[in-house]
Hints:
This protein has 6 domains: 2-75, Immunoglobulins (Immunoglobulin-like, Sandwich); 81-152, Immunoglobulins (Immunoglobulin-like); 164-232, Immunoglobulin-like, CATH 2.60.40; 238-312, Immunoglobulin-like (Sandwich); 324-389, Immunoglobulins (Immunoglobulin-like); 401-470. It is rod-shaped and about 265 Å long. Strands 2-8-7-5 form a 4-stranded mixed beta sheet, with no helix packed on it. A 4-stranded mixed beta sheet has the order 10-16-15-13, with no helix packed on it. By secondary structure, it is mainly beta.
Amino acid sequence: AIACPANITELATSSAGAIVNYTAPTATDNCSATPQQTAGLASGATFPIGQTTNTFSATDPAGNTSTCSFTVTVSGVAPSITCPSDIAVNAATGQCSAVVTFAATETTGIPASTISYSVASGSTFNVGTTTVTATATNAVGTDQCSFTVTVSDAEAPVALCQDLTVQLDANGQASLSANDVDTGSSDNCGIGSLALNQTAFGCGDLGTNQVTLTVTDVNGHTSICTAQVTVADATAPTLTCPTNITVVATSDAGAVVSYATPVYTDNCSATLQQTAGLASGATFPLGTTTNTFEATDPSGNTTSCSSTVTVEGVPPAIVCPADISVGTDLGQCSAAVTYAATETTGIPASTITYDIAPGSTFSVGTVTVTATATNSAGTDQCSFTVTVSDDEAPVALCQDLTVQLDANGQASLSANDVDAGSSDNCGISSMSLDQTSFDCDDVGGGNAWALEFDGVNDYVTVPNGTANMVG
Length: 471
């Protein structure tokens, strides 16, 4: 018979296994027997990891054989992994990540373990913290550890601004957003927000204003840039003049006229200036005066308007003198007559004209004179008569005459024979003699006669002329 030792279990001491010593099997026989190993490894050998069966047999001289076996089990060592310390790096320039290499260690495990990672070493890690798990595995078991890889964004954004011009609206307001000023700001990890220190503008901001754009990236880093914002106003003021005015003159100078101030508005402010015409409350001359006003805002935008003030004159109302009756001037068959019509109503003062001028010489008779008053507002006429009467008698002049009777004892005279140059201011119309025929009864002197004169406008008898008759 043969007896083997009990099964043996050992821990490996290296990846080759472990040196294992065991008691040699014992053989007994009624005669004798010698144990002989037929399988396995000798005591003191290095047993590989795993189970090795050692088999022994004993054979006596008669050839009888007995066998026994036992196992030597060499167990591996489970791994015990060690992770690196937590890793902190900055993102690569211009990148929002970093390539990170690392290595966990494991020296305990038998057989040697294989280490794997949840994220392979040399991978690209985004900004932030990533937990990496390392796993060591061998035939015996598995062990894990973890560490963090923190990639920080240490790069500030690039802030880029552009200058702008904004126009105020009808309410005098303008606005900008940060995006209006931004002209391509960038960041390696991306822009989280844009902010402008001033977004609303009004009339008080006309001109150049400096604004600041703050660029914040997704990781809280900021950069700023400045821009010049020119606030402009292209909206002209509104301006309304009063309606046209028409009044009647109160004097030759015209009339005092008051009018409403033009109404003006602007999205900011404006000033009003009169550029033509006369101020309200002034004396406006006859005719039409154009009043022009101009409203100007602080940006130089202007609007103008005009209205007229028309001062109308008063048409004349002429008054003629009463009809005039005069006698002829002494020794004249006419008279120089003066007169004057009056006109005090017309504005402006009228000019009076006559179809026959005052002071003209009027012949005997009746003449109608027409007076006309004229000003810029109109014309008026009136008429009156001038009557010139001949109140002057003719001057009768006679001469004495001697006439001869003819063969029949007859003689005759005419008024012209007796007239010695009679005259009249208006002319002699006729002369007559009260005796024009003479005969023998009239021979001698002292024959009385009368010469009658009939002027143009009167009749005179001159008595007591004498004629001497000669037989």
